[in-house]
Structure formats: C-alpha cells, structure tokens
Amino acid sequence: MRSGMSTHPIKDEDEDDTERLLKHYLNLEPNLTALYEYWSSVDPNFKKRAPKFTGVRILKQDAWEALMVNNLCLHYGPLIGHVDAQPYHDFPAPETLTGPGVEAHLRELGFGYRASYIAKTAKMVAKEKPEGWLQNLSNVDHSPDQKMPPGGRDGYRKAHEELLQLQGVGPKVADCVCLMGLGWGESVPVDTHVWQFAQRDYKFGKGKHKSLTKATYDAVGDHFRQLWGIEAGWAHSVLFAADLKTFSERLTSKAKEIKVEEVKVKQEGETTVEVKTVVKQEYLLNGIKDEFEEENTVELIKDFKDSPRNQRAKRRRLG
DNA sequence: GTTAAACCTATTGA
DNA sequence: TCAATAGGTTTAAC
C-alpha cells in the first residue's frame, strides 16, 4: 500500500486505492476519542472498563459477508491470488451456495447443523428475495444529530425484522449484520457475553427480565441505545471485548510477570501473606476496583493452591 | 409465553 | 479424558 506521502504528483494519479479501502473497511474516519469520552460521560461502568480496551472499531463489512462465515472462502470463493505461495480466496457470492450438494458438502467440511442454515439462507437471498434486497436494508442517512427512539430508527427495525426471516438467523445474528454489514450504529447484538455484563453491571437478570427471552433481548438493546446513543453498538463492542477470555488476559498479563518474580522471592518462606501482596499490586496496575480485585484474588489463590473448593469458587464468581 | 432439549464441531486447559 | 468455551437458533414441550 502506498503511504500517501508521495512527492510525485504524476505517480499519484495511478496510485492504488488500497489505503482508501482500508480506511473505509476499518472505519477509521470517526473520532474514537470523542466517542469514548461521550460514552464515559454517560456511563460510569464504561468509564471504568474502557481504558484497557482502546482502539475498538466497528468494521464496515459487506452485508452478505457479515452474514456468513470464514471457511467458505477456501472451498467456494474465487481465488484472488497468492502471498508466499499461500492462496487467498474472496468471499463466495450467495448464488455459489445454491447448488443441490452444498449442504452435504458443508457438513463434510465440519459446519455441523449450520450447514443447512447456510444453504437455505443462500437460496433465500439469491433466489427468493428480490435483487438487491440485502443491500437495500442499509443505512444511507449519515446526517448528524438524528433522533433515535429507544427501539432504534425505523430503517434499523425494518432491517432487523427482515433478516429474521432467514433460516438460522435469530435476533443476535440479525443485529450483527445490521451493525457491521448495514451501517446501523444503534444495533446491539446481545450474545452470551453481553448478557453476562448486562446482568453484572446493568441490573438485568432479575424480576421481569430474568432470562434472555425475546422480550428481555429487546429490553437490553433498548437500555443500551438509550444510554449510549446512536452508536450504541460500538460502545457495546468495547465492553464485549473486555468480557472475552482471550482479551481479558490483558487485565492480568503485567501482574503475572510480577507474580512470577514474587514466587521466586518467596521460595523459602510462607505463601499466604505474600500472595495477597501480589494481588494488591495487580489491583493497582489494573486501575480497576471492587469486584475485579475479588476475582483476581480467587484466581491467584487457585494458582498457588489448586484445591477443588477454590476451583468451584472461581467458576461461581466468573459465572 | 417461557423453558428445555437438540443441533454440530473444534480448540483449549485442567 | 473430560469440561469449558467457542455459542445462537430452532423445535418441541410445558
């Protein structure tokens, strides 16, 4: 990719558009700092957790691509080219996945019960729905200061509803497509992680909204839309990242280094007191208070004394 | 209207 | 090896 800092105007004319495409796909235009500041100003929980998860952006994917998955490209997508002898394939068009043997083949490829969903959805999009159906569900209005009801703009509600007709597409997947493939910023996909922190930090999971029914699903989305505004789906992604196990290692990685040092030091001494010291340091490093401290305490104790009781305690707290 | 069971495979950690 | 995790949607049953 060209850097865009060329001093040769003549060459700029045939400069490729890779940078422009990347900026668009990675959605680099919006001011992340301003957005984070706004979300932090309206939500103390966001303010507490977001600093460890900066730089989260919502991709501007193709809607059909957002609807489907990865492994498909290798077997159905057209070959784009090679990098270091490694072949790269584009995403297959829905028409490519409408053949009679597709479902069986996808099962062989390990898609499991989703094989039939993919095959049926491809048929619906390619054959049963009118031309441009999916793309026409996109948000095209980018004017600032739009009003948005808690349920979202009409276009978002329409897109969400239409997507639910597809086989294997429920509210969560529909919202993922709305958010990343169709440009509806207020879309909040509620998956298991979002449901976890909705219960832990936003008082869901009791009373009227005890379990994640459709009514609860909508209520969670409405709450976050009301709280975070028209880019609620973006704010949601920041906290989603914070809830993932793979990413949450960020919260303890530095402390683990210190923990190792502490273990060496205490080699000849008693354990309990010194473990607590480590926890304190981790707590300071993280800058995250209350319940996090407790979780880390349990985990660290588990590391040193791996008793079944402590394992149960950890599972219970981490839920 | 809500809940439970069934659907599928792959990866990771104890 | 087994449980947890990736993990929502559909269908049947209450």
UniProtKB/TrEMBL annotation:
> GO molecular function, one example?
class I DNA-(apurinic or apyrimidinic site) endonuclease activity
- Matching InterPro entries: DNA_glycosylase (IPR011257), HhH-GPD_domain (IPR003265), HhH_base_excis_C (IPR023170), OGG_N (IPR012904), Oxidative_DNA_repair_enzyme (IPR052054)
Q: Give the record's GO CC terms.
A: nucleus
Q: Which Gene Ontology BP terms does the record give?
A: base-excision repair, AP site formation; nucleotide-excision repair
Main subcellular location: nucleus
Q: Which SUPFAM superfamilies match?
A: DNA-glycosylase (SSF48150), TATA-box binding protein-like (SSF55945)
**What keyword terms does UniProt attach to this protein?**
DNA damage, DNA repair, Glycosidase, Hydrolase, Lyase, Multifunctional enzyme, Nucleus
* Subcellular compartments: Nucleus
All residue ranges annotated as the HhH-GPD domain in the record = 61-244
The reaction(s) annotated as catalysed by this protein in its Swiss-Prot or TrEMBL entry are: 2'-deoxyribonucleotide-(2'-deoxyribose 5'-phosphate)-2'-deoxyribonucleotide-DNA = a 3'-end 2'-deoxyribonucleotide-(2,3-dehydro-2,3-deoxyribose 5'-phosphate)-DNA + a 5'-end 5'-phospho-2'-deoxyribonucleoside-DNA + H(+)
Q: Name one Pfam family in it.
A: OGG_N
Instruction: Identify which top EC class this enzyme belongs to.
Output: lyase
Query: Which superkingdom does the taxonomy of this entry point to?
Result: Eukaryota
Alphabetical list of Gene3D superfamilies matching this protein: Helix-hairpin-Helix base-excision DNA repair enzymes (C-terminal), Hypothetical protein, domain 2
Q: What is its EC number?
A: 4.2.99.18
The record's similarity note reads:
Belongs to the type-1 OGG1 family.
Q: This protein is called what?
A: DNA-(apurinic or apyrimidinic site) lyase
